[in-house]
Each structure stands twice: as C-alpha cells, then as structure tokens.
Amino acid sequence: MDILPFTKPDIDEETIASVIGVLRSGWLTTGPKCHEFESALSLRAGGRPVRVANSATAALEFALRIAGIKSGDEVITTSLSWVATSNVILTVGATPVFVDIDPVTRLIDLNKVEAAITERTRAIIPVDLAGFPVDRDLLYTLAQRYELRVVEDAAQAQGANWKGREIGSFGDLVVFSFHPNKNMTTGEGGCLVMNTEQEARQFEKLRLQGITRCADGTYDCDILGGKANLTDIAAAIGLGQLKSLDCFNLRRRELARQYFVQLTGLPLELPPKDFAQSNWHMFQVLLPNELAERRGELIKHLRDHGIAVGVHYPAIHQTSLYRKLRLSITPLPRTENVAARILTLPLFPAMHEDDIRRVASALGRVIESMCLNGTEA
Fold first, then answer.
1. CA distance 148 to 271
2. What is the pTM of this model?
3. Which residues pair with 74 in a beta bridge?
4. What does the alpha-carbon distance between residue 211 and residue 204 come to, in Å, rounded to a whole number?
5. Largest CA distance in the chain
6. Residue 14 · residue 354 · CB < 8 Å
7. What does the buried/exposed string (b/e) look like for 26-63 if buried means 16 or more CB atoms within 10 Å of the residue's CB?
8. How far apart are CA 160 and CA 166, in angstroms?
9. How far lies 308's CA from each of 7, 148, 349, 365, in Å?
10. Residues 123 and 67: beta-carbon distance below 8 Å
11. What residues contact 232, with CB distance under 8 A and at least 6 apart?
C-alpha cells in the first residue's frame, strides 16, 4: 500500500537544473547564490535586511544575541512549539518563561503575557503555529509598553500576513525556517529579517566564527561566533522555491477548504477558518479527550490505512530536559490538553482532492472503530 506522507516538498525541474549549475560552477559554499537569495528575501520583506543561515535554530539563537539577551534574562514564549524555540533561550544563558495558549487559535495567549513579565524579562518569542499569525497589534503594544525585544518565531509562516502586511515585512526580528517540511525549503536552512545593516553585519559575524575579513586578505575576530553559513547549493533550491511560494500557499488554502468539508461530522476540533492571513502550513485537528491517551494507537491504525500523520508538538515543558531544569512554571492546562490531543494531517501542494477524502474517510473509520470496539480498528 502506498503511504500518503503528511508533507512532501515540491521541487521543479528548473530548480534542479539550478542546483546542477551550482555543482558545475565549483563554488558550493556561501557565495553568489546565497547573496542572490538574501536579496530576493529582502525584496519580499519590503527591503529589510535579511541574512540566511543553515537552520532556523541558528537564526533564532543569533536573533537573541543581537537583541542582547544574556545570562540572567527571561524570555517569554509558548510551550506548544518545536523544542528549538526555547532551547535557544537556554543556549544564550537566559530562562524561558512559558505562557499558556489560547484554546481556539492554539497560539500564545497574549492576554496572559503581561502577568508573566518581571524585572528580568527582556524579550518575547511568539510562535506562528501552523502558519496562523499571532496578533501583531497586541504583541507590539505589549512589547513597546514594557520595552521588550520581539523575536518572531515565524518558522512556519512564510507568505502568511497580518491584516494584509506580509509577515517579515514589519516588526522587530523575524525568523523563517526552510526545513523540508515548510512551505518553501532549501533542504535545511533558515533566515533572520532584521531592522538595520548593523544588525545584519553582526549576524554575518555570528554565523561564521565572529570574523571580519580585511582588505589585506587577513581577518579579525572580535566576537565569539559559530559555523552556521548556508551553502550555494541550498540557496539555489531556495530561489526556486521562493518563486513558487505564493502558488504553493494558494494550493494549501484550497486543500484546507476541502478538509473542512470532508471532516464535517467527525468528533474533532478543527483549526480556525483563516483563509485571509494563514499560509496553512499544517492542518491540525484535536482528537476527542477520550482518545488522547490512545493517540499513538490511532496513528498506527492510520498508518495501516496508508495515511502518515504527525504530532506537532509535545509540550516543551513536559519533556525530560525541562522537567530536570525545574523551571518555575505557571500551570499550562490549555497547552497540555492541546498537546495531548493534537494531530497533524497530510497537507502539501501536490496532494489532490481525492487524497483529502481518503484521509477523512480513514480517520472517520479509525475513530469510530476505536470508540466502539476498544483497541480494534
């Protein structure tokens, strides 16, 4: 039986030819294609400085360093995200402070953020889960009131917008991911959208050992950096993907609409019907509470039906590392409930309407069987 994956990148022949061109050029590491990619991303971001890295995780870490976040500081974020969102806070020596989510949007509840702010709070990292944008108006009102930096974890929000303004074209520091499961990819990679060329120069140092090259062929090293530069091979993929991003997102919206039709009547909580702002990076449903503890079993049964699904995400604060850290965590009942029930269904541009019907049918049969007959499905 053919397995329908929950995601799959769409790489066209023109992009493949571009990659071959890079391979034949002899210049494989950071070079002209990376600069071209950064310029194209900057144009998309309204002319703001953009620099690429080999992962969004590196871009998040560098964003915090550029924002001056250090040991002893606190950074407010959500626990319903890929663990990198808070791991980078630990990496720079700061402390993550988790705030519960809104039960409808599943995004950080900005109405609860103010109560979490202390004299040590220096920044907020909101996450645009599944490509649904966090309320930028309320976010920046809070940030300005308390003089906080904002590092937008927009890893999943390529091409999404807030009230018609594309994510990344405004705001403070904005991170995108180009992992293969994102709406556009470079294979692996990410970028940071910044405010000034000074920040961009700092990012360039951080991604390559903290060096500044000198006119006489030598270099100076004045800060501690890492090794996180992107290759021209990856940039060539990214340039091809960026050209198709709007078409990819349009197709995702069309498929998401079909999910709403096909899932009607099933005992699932569906995501918000945002077809104006979201890029529909993922289509996530919440299982009935009575099936939460049996989600792994349900996933196996769906796999038996030829359907691959995902869990995005386990709650960060419930992982072993964060339990060992013994952070002072305010109760997060909504986060824990959603994390226990969330299920990511297949969604990628090459899917067909028949695939949506196939997923919905299999999901309905499995849920019905599990609810009625115990473990058999």
1. 30
2. 0.96
3. 95, 121
4. 8
5. 76
6. no
7. eeeebbebbeebbebbbebbeebbbbbbbbbbbbbbbb
8. 6
9. 9, 41, 16, 15
10. yes
11. 22, 25, 27, 28, 29, 30, 31, 32, 33, 34
pLDDT by residue for the chain (377 residues), tens only, comes to 789 999 999 999 999 999 999 999 999 999 999 999 999 999 999 999 999 999 999 999 999 999 999 999 999 999 999 999 999 999 999 999 999 999 999 999 999 999 999 999 999 999 999 999 999 999 999 999 999 999 999 999 999 999 999 999 999 999 999 999 999 999 999 999 999 999 999 999 999 999 999 999 999 999 999 999 999 999 999 999 999 999 999 999 999 999 999 999 999 999 999 999 999 999 999 999 999 999 999 999 999 999 999 999 999 999 999 999 989 889 999 999 999 999 999 999 999 999 999 999 999 999 998 987 764 44
Q: Who's near 43: CB < 8 A, 6+ residues apart?
A: none
- Distance between CA atoms of 184 and 86, rounded to whole angstroms? 23
Residues designated catalytic: 182
| Structure-token match 């050992």, residue found | 209
Query: Residue 254: which H helix or E strand, with range?
Result: helix 232-262
- Nearest Cα neighbor of 221 from 209, 233, 237, 232 is 209
CA distance readout (Å), 301 to 89, 363, 364 = 37, 9, 11
Domain boundaries, the chain: 13-239, 245-373
Closest CA to 41 of 139, 178, 225: 178
Torsion sign, CA atoms 12, 348, 247, 237: negative
Q: What topology is assigned to 245-373 in CATH?
A: Aspartate Aminotransferase, domain 1 (3.90.1150)
Q: Both tokens of residue 308?
A: 């691959």
| Closest to 66 in 3D by CA, of 194, 153, 175, 170 | 194
Instruction: Give the helix/strand (H/E) hosting 284.
Output: strand 283-286
Q: Closest Cα partner for 307 from 256, 347, 336, 279? A: 347
DSSP SS3 for 62: helix
> Side chain identity at 144, as an amino acid letter?
Q
Q: Which CATH class is domain 13-239?
A: alpha beta
